[in-house]
Design a protein that fits this description.
This protein is an alpha/beta fold. The chain has 2 domains: about 220 residues, P-loop containing nucleotide triphosphate hydrolases (Rossmann fold), CATH 3.40.50.300; about 60 residues, YebC, transcriptional regulation domain (Alpha-Beta Plaits), CATH 3.30.70.980. Helix content is about 35%, strand content about 30%. The strands form 4 sheets. A 6-stranded mixed beta sheet has the order 5-6-7-3-8-9, with helices on both faces. It has a 4-stranded antiparallel beta sheet with strand order 11-12-10-13, with helices on one face. It has a 3-stranded antiparallel beta sheet with strand order 2-1-4, with helices on one face. Strand 8 and strand 9 form a beta hairpin. Helix 3 packs across helix 4, helix 4 packs across helix 5 and helix 8 packs across helix 11. It is elongated. The C terminus is likely disordered. Adenosine-5'-triphosphate binds next to strand 2 and helix 1. GO terms for molecular function: ATP binding; ATP hydrolysis activity.
Length: about 325
């Protein structure tokens, strides 16, 4: 279990992480979401004792990670996959980690196999693709067979096969009771991977709830209807003050259920050809929630759009 209590980090005038409190529990993949610059990496670094909090505490299994007797057995972390000695082979890199952390050498073969890296174990790291480097980083994180895994943006820049592999890997770890904490700014990816979300913007906690609750709470319910009697239905909706808009062949209606729209149509003898509820995606819910906390905005035409969530698919 990971616990942040009032975690705060200032860099001069800049508050990178602002009074964050949350708990990451075992048995699920917890997504740590926020636009670029929201404070995800800084938070993860503080949990790992690589940055000192200005205020507050971060606990791993009830104590600061810096107090861990066997750190790699407690937490495995992938922060920056390219931050390794490129001249070494994958096997040599993992062996040196084993030696410096007092882990048995047999773990090297175990994690190479686990991450599908056995065939390239003798190759130098500098020739690795980003996907291979990510796998090696994950292999290193798994060396101590830890109960807690932390991955900072593990799917950034990966091809679909690599993304799928990491997603399945994290889910299988969680299903075997491990704590998996993974940061990302890719909403659609987190919707497929994480059961729980911790969302931050400008260092502040915006949401801490299940992925489904997040979508339910942050996406507005809309109903779409297709009818050959559009004018009659629009009049009936306008008469009760309902907001509507035309979207292609549909009328889109805010704030009513499909039942209410169906009943209203029946009352006015309006034939319905299609009627369905539409919820916005996790992507839209995230954009809505973090709209005011995105650091940098790009301009498209005369509209401001968040520049930092453009990578989301
Ligand atoms: N060493 C530092 N000195 C000064 N400012 C910093 C430092 N490290 C981070 N920051 C600032 O703190 C804020 C949070 O950065 P952080 O890297 O934690 O965000 P992030 O959510 O991980 O973003 P990204 O998705 O871009 O990695 C940013 O405004 C960043 O510029």
């Amino acid at each position: 279990m990971i616990e942040a209590r009032g975690l705060t980090k200032r860099y001069g005038d800049k508050v990178a992480v602002d009074d964050l409190s949350f708990t990451v529990k075992p048995g699920t993949v917890t997504g740590f979401l926020g636009p670029n610059g929201a404070g995800k990496s800084t938070t993860m670094r503080m949990i790992l004792g690589l940055d000192r909090p200005t205020r507050g505490t971060a606990l791993v299994n009830g104590h600061p990670y810096t107090h861990a007797k066997a750190p790699l057995r407690e937490v495995g972390a992938l922060l920056d996959a390219k931050d390794v000695h490129g001249g070494r082979t994958a096997r040599a890199h993992l062996l040196s980690l084993c030696q410096s952390n007092g882990l048995p050498r047999r773990r090297v073969n175990d994690v190479l196999e686990l991450t599908g890296m056995s065939e390239v174990a003798g190759k130098r790291i500098k020739g690795f693709s980003l996907g291979m480097s990510q796998r090696l980083g994950i292999a290193a994180a798994m060396l101590g067979d830890p109960q807690i895994l932390m991955f900072d943006e593990p799917v950034n820049g990966l091809d679909p096969e690599g993304i799928l592999w990491i997603r399945n890997f994290m889910q299988s770890l969680a299903s075997r009771g491990r704590t998996v904490f993974v940061s990302s700014h890719l909403m659609s990816e987190m919707a497929l991977t994480a059961q729980h979300l911790i969302v931050i913007g400008r260092g502040k906690l915006l949401a801490d709830m299940s992925t489904q609750e997040f979508i339910n709470q942050n996406s507005s319910a809309r109903v779409r209807v297709r009818t050959p009697h559009a004018e009659a239905l629009l009049d009936a909706l306008a008469a009760q003050g309902t907001t509507t808009r035309k979207v292609d062949a549909f009328i889109e209606i805010d704030g009513l259920t499909t039942d209410a729209v169906g009943d209203l149509a029946a009352k006015h003898n309006v034939t319905i050809h299609e009627l369905f509820a539409q919820r916005s995606s996790l992507e839209e819910a995230f954009m809505e929630m973090t709209r005011d906390s995105v650091e940098y905005h790009a301009t498209v035409g005369d509209q401001q759009v968040p520049a930092t969530v453009g990578g989301a698919q």
